[in-house]
Amino acid sequence: MPGTAWKCYRCNLSFRSEETARMHRQISSHSVTKVRAIEA
Question: What's the predicted TM-score (pTM) here?
Answer without folding.
Answer: 0.77
